[in-house]
Amino acid sequence: MFSALAWIGRHGKYFLIAGLFVGLLAPGLAETLRPWIGTLVAVLLFVTGVRVGARQAFGHLSELRPTLVRISVLQTLLPLVVIAMLAVLGVSHFPMAMAVSLMLAAPSLTGAPNFAIMMGHDPAPGMRLLVMGTAVFPVTALPVLLILDPAGGGIFSAFSLSLGLLAAILAAVSLGFTVRRFVPNLGDLRAQGALDGCAALLLAIVVVGLMSAIGPLLQDDPLALVLWLLAALAVNFVLVFVTLHVSRRAHLQMAVPTAIYAGNRNIALFLIVLPDEVAAPLMIFVGCYQVPMYLTPILLSRLAGEGPQDR
């Protein structure tokens, strides 16, 4: 069993792509899995918490400041700049503009540390960005949510959304840290490989559910789907590659984890509270955005190389 999971972990990038195709070609299965996405994401966080452990995830106090600086820039400053640009261009009312703005305000994708593992990099910096980005999410996202007001509930809905997500994610991660602490053998190489396989399988299953809106749109309006997909590809690739280039030119640490985080956000979190008329087009963007996100470990590994481990 452990050897089979370890094999899946070593080939996890290809399981992600398989999940994309299953989600596209089996819309019935995707619709069945959609209500379970939240639970599956929580289980993935738990597995990742066990895999990384609290000591590696939080690192030293000296690593706190650069992590928070990255979060402030990518989760607050960047979406505010984009929102202002969209308003100047007069396109801020379009569903695509709303989707991109919310995506930029979201914390790191829960699978980001697993992407780093698939690329042969240390998952700990990605876990720090994930945990801390989610912990400060009620603060960093508040200006964006107040400007956009996607749920129509003002400051109350913004705080309710942020605090609920924070509680769920921290609970799952903390449970994983606790299990790792009391079962130290889970830090062994064999157990780590099996955990990587579990995470890859969970990611592949999650993406099937997130693709639930894509199959029907492919049948009803394939041209609209192509436009949504091209926009998702452009946004993701620009964020990932520009962030990696800037980080390396500035000789910043955590270049690869920061690039993964920049382009891969947990936009699906917003679907929990948004009204149907807002959530419907957003779900299309979420589905399309899975394509570049789940290609990230393959494309970014070619650009970044294995290199030294990011700290």
Kindly describe this structure.
With 311 residues, the chain is mainly alpha-helical. It has one domain: Na+/H+ antiporter like fold. It contains 17 helices and no strands. Helix 3 crosses helix 13, helix 9 packs across helix 16 and helix 15 crosses helix 17. The model has no long low-confidence stretch (mean pLDDT 82).
Task: Please name the defining characteristics of this protein.
311 residues; Na+/H+ antiporter like fold; 17 helices; globular
Concise summary:
This is Bile acid:Na+ symporter, BASS family. InterPro entries: Na+/solute_symporter_sf. With 311 residues, this protein is mainly alpha-helical.
Strand content: under 5%
Task: Measure the end-to-end span.
Answer: 32 Å
Give the rounded overall mean pLDDT. Answer: 82
Task: Predict the CATH topology.
Answer: Na+/H+ antiporter like fold
Low-confidence stretches: none
Helix fraction, binned, reads: over 70%
Order of helices and strands: HHHHHHHHHHHHHHHHH
Q: Structural class, judged by helices and strands?
A: mainly alpha
* CATH second-level architecture: Up-down Bundle
- Integer count of domains: 1
User: In CATH's first tier, which class applies?
Assistant: Mainly Alpha
Largest sheet geometry: none
Enumerate how many helices there are, as a single number.
Answer: 17
